[in-house]
């Protein structure tokens, strides 16, 4: 990395963009949205659009593989995502090599979508400046042709028809450069500006969440920073981003919940909304939402097909986020019971049920390992339960798997995991192993019946794995 936050210069060539790409994809795995890292790439609507197009084409590619894509999708896809060559070539940082047929399809895709991805930001600005200069020179010669006149503007000497200003750099990067405060890349090195998370929806609303390390700033100094950020994005150069919401979170840890450190709304709407399977879904800044909505619809339909529910089924949605899975199943079952740790997400889930006119859903806030065992004890009747669990990468707490295993009424279990090779593996073993008195796993073991990987993360090694268990 060419730079720390201290000298306000820009990271060097490939490293900065390599980092940018990693951050973008990692955040895509964690949540719904790309994160643009400080000082290494730019927040610009165009860039965001190209990323969204990239994700869209990725989805089309997946549909192509699964035979679902329309001819139109295939045609569009083919222009961005050429077929993979039989043998993958060695990666190269040489731009001209990336353009060539010998490069891998990932490199050619990156080159097609973000052609300057191997170039540092200062050099990108030079490339852009030179490009614009050439355009102006062409304009000058065309103007000469059409007018038959000699052009006498002050910059004729440079073959340009008007003074050419330096490229105005991208906005968040510019903001950080203007700020008297440093970026915070590593906690122990100090600095303040951490990351910006950008959430967009199908209708083009944009929520930006800026994470900031307060270090030892006073409340007055913090207020000044918030005011200045708001000014930049509402009345300054950042106003072109047309943010629907601007949030600010002070965070001294890698991640903070709203309860640990509130998400402070600096400007605009408190929520972003998304249309999903015919439902309008409200999403708070700290609530989870799947990485791309069309992909989420495919995932939820897969879960619904595997769940084998009936009108009698009580449907448990464990780790339910904004309630999307349960809400999308509500009209097929007698009752949906959701459990979620993040309080704002539970509020969203309740709002989503009410707004969409769904009355057979109840959402409980808290740790599933605390709420689920108690909830199962209170449920009356003999109707079968179907449980869907969709935990984060840390998997389920052993008390959750134990409660599910020991509840005889749960006959069908769908386990959705974005990292089945991690902690989830332990959960799966606990669900299927022979009875074990020492671990208090006394219920009948589940049997794995079906596994369906759903590619929510094209161009990465990751899948959502949907596992159907029965007993
Ligand atoms: C992968 S997300 C799935 C959310 C939802 N099913 C969806 O598709 O949008 C995992 C969810 O589990 C929640 N979670 C994490 N740990 C939890 C716990 N101990 N108890 C309840 N929920 C938890 C997270 O807040 C997050 O919303």
Structure description:
This protein is α/β, with parallel strands linked by helices. Helices cover 38% and strands 18% of the residues. The chain has 14 helices and 14 strands. The chain has helices at residues 13-30, 45-65, 71-80, 95-99, 105-113, 121-147, 171-178, 219-234, 293-307, 324-329, 343-355, 368-378, 398-406, 423-432, and strands spanning 35-37, 193-200, 206-212, 245-250, 264-268, 272-276, 279-283, 314-318, 335-340, 361-365, 385-389, 410-417, 447-454, 464-470. It has a seven-stranded mixed beta sheet, with helices on both faces. Strands 1-2-3-4-5 form a five-stranded mixed beta sheet. Strands 6-7 form a two-stranded antiparallel ribbon. Helix 2 (45-65) crosses helix 3 and helix 12 (368-378) packs parallel to helix 13 (398-406). The chain is elongated and about 90 Å long. The N and C termini lie far apart (54 Å). S-adenosylmethionine is lined by residues 288-290, 319-321, 324-325, 339-342, 345, 367-369, 390-392, 397. S-adenosylmethionine binds at residues 288-290, 319-321, 324-325, 339-342, 345, 367-369, 390-392, 397. It comes from Pleurodeles waltl. Keywords: Methyltransferase, S-adenosyl-L-methionine, Transferase. The active site is at 418 (nucleophile). It holds the Pfam family Methyltransf_31.
